[in-house]
Structures are given as structure tokens and as C-alpha cells.
Amino acid sequence: MSRKKNISKKIPNGRTFQTKDNYFYGAENYRKPNVKGHYRRVVVVDSNKKDELAVVKLTTSKKGIPIKTYRQGKSKIRPFVETRDFRNQPIKRNKYFLENKSSYDFSKYELSQVKKLLFKTSKNSKLNSARVRKLKDRK
Predict the structure, then answer these.
(1) 59 within some domain
(2) pLDDT in tens, 39-92
């Protein structure tokens, strides 16, 4: 009996995207001063068959948790899963979320580190898990 996985065929987990902070749900009025273009990098931690994405923001701030093997440890993550855009629609590849080259992708090891952090050790692990379950239409 074969099981069909509920993940995107077009966008692999670990792929990175460029966007702006004000394209996320709840941050519509945020404007980063003196910055043009898509400046925020996000990484896909999960997806569903409809190519809807669950992403995590990458940051360089001191508040972030470092991923030592990705980009010489300069990139860090904030342990919050995002699944909605500023229009309260699921996050998809579109003009607001632009896909990066595959050279920027997270490796399987780095992605497993991020998932472990998000779903097991983070203070928000229950909220993160609930968001991904809702994305995948599970109860």
C-alpha cells in the first residue's frame, strides 16, 4: 500500500525565498526604513500538495538562534513558523515571495536541526506544530 505524502512536488523543504517583513500576517504596517527590494530571507520547513508553505525567518540579529553550518554561522533563525501572508492567505511562491537559487538551500542536516528546534525545544513548539498541522489539513 503506497502512501502519498502531503508535500509540494515543486518546492522542496529547505528552499529559501526573499520577501519583506510587511508581507507576513500581522505585520502589514511595518516598514523597514531606508531599504528597497526584498530583504528578508525565509526558509521552507514544510509544505502541502497545494504548494502552500510553512516558513521560518532568517535574521542576523543577536536574538536569533545560530545555524552554525549555514553560511559560516552568520545566519540565524527566529523560532516562529509563519504560514499566512498579509492578506491572510497561505504563503505561496508569487511576487511577494521570490524563490532564491538552489545554492542558498538548507542541507538536510541543517533543516533537521531547524525542525528539531522549532517543534521540540522552542517555547512556541505547540503553536508551531499546530500551524503546520493546520497547513496540512490534519486535526
Answers:
(1) yes
(2) 889 999 999 999 999 999 998 888 888 888 887 778 889 899 999 999 999 999
For residue 87, give Cα distances in angstroms to 23, 41, 98: 8, 19, 17
CA 96 to CA 74: how far, in whole Å?
25
Amino acid, res. 11: I
Whether the predicted model's global pTM rises above the 0.85 cut: yes
Closest among 67, 87, 61 to 16, alpha carbons compared: 67
User: Is there a domain that residue 104 lies in?
Assistant: yes
Q: Residue 93, CB half-sphere, CA atoms under 13 Å: how many? A: 17
Q: Is residue 52 part of a domain?
A: yes
At residue 29, the pLDDT reads 77
Determine if residue 88 is left, alpha or beta; phi over 0 gives left, psi from -120 to 50 gives alpha, anything else beta: left
Please write the tens of the pLDDT for every residue from 88-108: 999 999 999 999 999 999 999
Q: Is residue 47, in this structure, part of any structural domain at all? A: yes
Domain interval for residue 117: 16-135
Do 2 and 42 contact (CB within 8 A), yes or no? Answer: no
